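Hi, here's the filled form for the chain we discussed.

Project: internal
Contact: R.S.
Residues: 112
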Amino acid sequence: MKNNFKLLNCVEKTYWYINKTLINIPKNEIILKTHVDQYMLEIVELTNNYLINESEKIRNNNLKLILTKLSMIDFFTLEIYRRNHIKKKKFESITNYIIEIRKLSYGLLKNA
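And the returned structure, exactly as it came back:
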């Protein structure tokens, strides 16, 4: 149960960190900003769904969806970095947050 709330806490920290980063992206990249924000909100929603549901099948499905959306966030973050809207250190920090969520998710999937 402790890992469940650790996952939620990690997802929320990542959301706020990425949200602060998106402020600095130019308006002409609104599509990237919108997609990243949308996927992060969906990850927060899926994490809460995971915590609430008791069915293992639904919980595992939520974790798999979280992992899929994390991959998309990773892709969009890489694209933002390639377009020189964030520095390498910021990109690495976001990637480390994503890796932490991914590890927790895979751990919860494995233990299910």
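Let me know if anything looks off before we file it.
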